[in-house]
Amino acid sequence: MIEYVDVPDAPVRPLEADVAGRRVAAHATPYGGEVGDPSFRFDPLQRRLVARRGSGRVAVGPADPESWARAFSRCPAGPVLVGPGCPAEEIRGAGLSAAEGAARAGRGVYLLDPDPAGIPARRGSSLTAILCWTPAVDDVAERLAPLLAAGVPAGALLPIIPGWTDDARFIEQWWAQLAGAGGLFAAAVAATGGGDDRRLLVEARARLDPTSADAFFEKAHHSDWASAVREGLRLFRAEAARRGLPAMPPRPVGAGEPPGNSAAAGWLEERAVTVEEDEHRAALFHGAARWIDEAGRDLVPVVREGNFGKVFPFGALTAEAEAAFRAERLP
After folding, report:
1. CB hemisphere CA count around 155 (13 angstroms)
2. Which of 139, 254, 287, 310 is most exposed, with minimal Cβ within 10 Å?
3. Measured in whole angstroms, how far is the alpha carbon of residue 125 from the centre of its chain?
4. Where are the strands (E) in 108-194, listed by range?
């Protein structure tokens, strides 16, 4: 039995994190609690598999967009993450209210596993929907269809798990399903390999496919996890290039963001992924994207006038950041 419990305040948490390589400045959870189907889901913020109970309480945020807008206004600037969704959305309306509140606060919104009833009527370029992999469910086409029909840019995220999702054949078949369903992008992230995380992965694999449990146990606990993940990411991105589809979600642009700033920050996020093995340089690109998000003014005129280098605090990246703005064909 699932009990839905109303909470008076909009549960919005400021944070500095990324989802599929894209920066998010806050996370809204319209429905809190790991309860219900599926039994396992992949959490893109923690980058780990999460077990869900069959019954329990789910905390439900307010069905009032203004409550969510106020909560988002207290968070750092930049796009936000809303979700995951819930089958009770059509009745409770918390997910829709959170997305609408984020839009009212001028934010670009990443919708995480949204229920179709939680898609705002006004969309434009302010929304991107991301569907996360669930090990027991092979329904990407079914989940994508209502999002694409509503005109929301939608795609999926796959965790790279050694011995499970890192195999070339698995990746090719996963991509074929996504592309066949009309997905507009796909992203891969490295699943964390801590001891507890691996134990849960083994439990999930044994429950879903007992015949492969022993082989997966050996791979999960006795292989070079980091090396296998790197190779899986390489195979995934090579398949993306072969199919001509983006390997990152499009960055949504909120009404309160200067479009040129958002585009430049998004380009820097993409650069961070290309140099991710150099953690220091990747962190610089992410820091530069955050600075642009939080600049508080339209930087396009500053770049056009040749003064960007005087205000940009990441001197080593000045040329690349200016190139990111100029790539947008400044007026």
Report:
1. 23
2. 310
3. 16
4. 109-112, 127-132, 154-160, 186-190
Q: What is the pLDDT of residue 309?
A: 93
Instruction: Write out pLDDT tens, residues 87-106.
Output: 999 999 999 999 999 999 99
Main-chain dihedrals φ then ψ at residue 295, nearest 5 degrees: -60, -30
Residue 53 token pair: 């109970």
Torsion sign across C-alpha atoms 213, 34, 171, 233:
negative
Please name the residues in contact with 228: beta carbons below 8 A apart, sequence gap of 6 or more.
162, 163, 166, 219
pLDDT at 328: 59
14-38 as b/e: b if 16+ CB within 10 A: eeebbbbbbbbbbbbbbbbbebbee
C-alpha span between 49 and 202 (Å, rounded): 11
Please give the Cα distance from 223 to 225 (Å, whole number).
6
Quote the distance between the C-alpha of residue 175 and its chain's center: 18
Q: What is the pLDDT of residue 330?
A: 46
Q: Which residues of the chain have pLDDT under 50?
A: 330-331
**Residues 223-261 as b or e (16 or more Cβ within 10 Å = b):** eebeebbbebbebbbebbeeeebbbbbbbbbbeebbebb
Pair of tokens at residue 324: 């990111």
User: Helix 259-274 to helix 279-293 angle, to the nearest 10 degrees?
Assistant: 170
Give residue 12's pLDDT. Answer: 98
**CA-CA-CA-CA torsion sign (190, 195, 200, 206):** positive
At which residue do the structure tokens 């990441």 appear?
A: 314
Q: What is the pLDDT of residue 331?
A: 42
Q: Which residue is it, tokens 């100029």?
A: 326
Residue whose entry in the numeric block shows the structure tokens 């991710």: 276
pLDDT at position 217:
92
* Alpha-carbon dihedral sign for residues 209, 157, 229, 236: positive
What's the Cα-to-Cα distance from 160 to each of 112, 186, 189, 204, 279, rounded to whole Å?
A: 18, 13, 6, 15, 19
Q: Please give the model's pTM, rounded to 2 decimal places.
A: 0.94
